[in-house]
TrEMBL record:
InterPro entries: ABC_transp_permease (IPR001851), BCAA_transport_permease (IPR052157). This is Branched-chain amino acid ABC transporter permease. It comes from Actinomadura rubrobrunea. It is a multi-pass membrane protein. The keyword Transport applies. One of its GO terms (molecular function) is transmembrane transporter activity. The lineage of its organism: Bacteria, Bacillati, Actinomycetota, Actinomycetes, Streptosporangiales. GO terms for biological process: amino acid transport. It is found in: Cell membrane. The chain crosses the membrane at residues 15-35, 42-58, 95-114, 140-157, 186-209, 263-281.
Length: 288
């Protein structure tokens, strides 16, 4: 039983990181219908920026804030320079375009930070042992970040006028234009939100999983699977999907084989696409 609980706790923390990245996918897709395959690169870039800022002498908190701000700015620049100029943005076009952006970001990170991985120093806090289960302080930070950021994004879309206006751009774009809602500004805001959520995932996971130029692909694909579990339109669904995926990965790694950990995400994706293409969340609820 202790082993099972240990795998579940580790899976919850890992799933929290997937959930943060999945929220970024949902934030953009729910507004503009764009699938941003560069979402994982936001996490990798944030982790590396935070490590460099801390290495330059900044205290941990300012280093984290600098990293999040840099990545949010990069996300906004991508929207302005790569997404907005394309007049007819289909889902397939967005996949191809953002895949190119992802590759470019990888090349930049490889050039600046090199091929080796880097680790940010751990956040403050003491590890815990509860009922024989070891809980690292950093895992609690990941779960707290997921709860706070995920809750904030959900509240923004569900409870604020500006958030509802962003949702209207996807659901009723013509009506949104008629009442004066700017679709271009809505897309810009959604990319900014995605940049922040991806950056938070990158900085809180770096002390455990390290950061490197190539980690973004894995994080992005798993975040996409988590978002797909929620139907790509629900923040709550994305969080639940991320947690579920993280727990499943750790259970498979612990009880079957460690080498199968990364295969879990894609097996789950295939199963969901075959059984429930709309995701686990019902269509009527699958809204941010």
């Amino acid at each position: 039983m202790a082993d099972l609980l240990q795998f579940v706790v580790a899976g919850l923390a890992q799933g929290g990181a997937y959930a943060l990245i999945a929220i970024g996918f949902v934030s953009i897709f729910a507004v503009s219908g764009v699938i941003n395959l560069a979402q994982g690169e936001f996490a990798a870039l944030a982790g590396l920026c935070a490590i460099s800022a801390a290495g330059a002498g900044l205290p941990l908190l300012p280093a984290l804030l600098v990293a999040v701000a840099v990545v949010a700015a990069v996300a906004i620049a991508i929207e302005r320079l790569a997404i907005r100029p394309v007049r007819r943005m289909t889902t397939l076009t967005s996949i191809i375009l953002t895949l190119g952006v992802s590759t470019a970001l990888k090349a930049v990170m490889l050039l600046i930070w090199g091929p080796q991985g880097h680790t940010l120093r751990a956040f403050p806090g003491s590890d815990l042992t509860v009922a024989g289960v070891s809980i690292r302080a950093q895992e609690l930070w990941i779960l707290a970040a997921c709860a706070l950021v995920g809750g904030a994004v959900w509240w923004f879309y569900e409870r604020t006028l500006h958030g509802k206006a962003l949702r209207a751009c996807s659901e009723q774009p013509v009506a949104a234009r008629l009442i004066g809602i700017s679709l271009t500004k809505a897309s810009l805001v959604s990319f900014g939100i995605a940049g922040v959520t991806g950056a938070v995932a990158g900085v809180v996971t770096s002390p455990i999983y390290s950061s490197s130029w190539e980690i973004g692909l894995t994080l992005g694909l798993k975040g996409f699977v988590a978002a797909t579990l929620g139907g790509l339109l629900s923040v709550r669904g994305a969080i639940l999907g991320g947690i579920l995926l993280g727990v499943l990965e750790n259970l498979v790694a612990g009880y079957v084989a460690t080498g199968l950990r990364d295969a879990v995400a894609f097996v789950v994706l295939i199963a969901i696409l075959l059984a429930r293409p709309g995701g686990l969340v019902k269509h009527t609820e699958a809204r941010v």
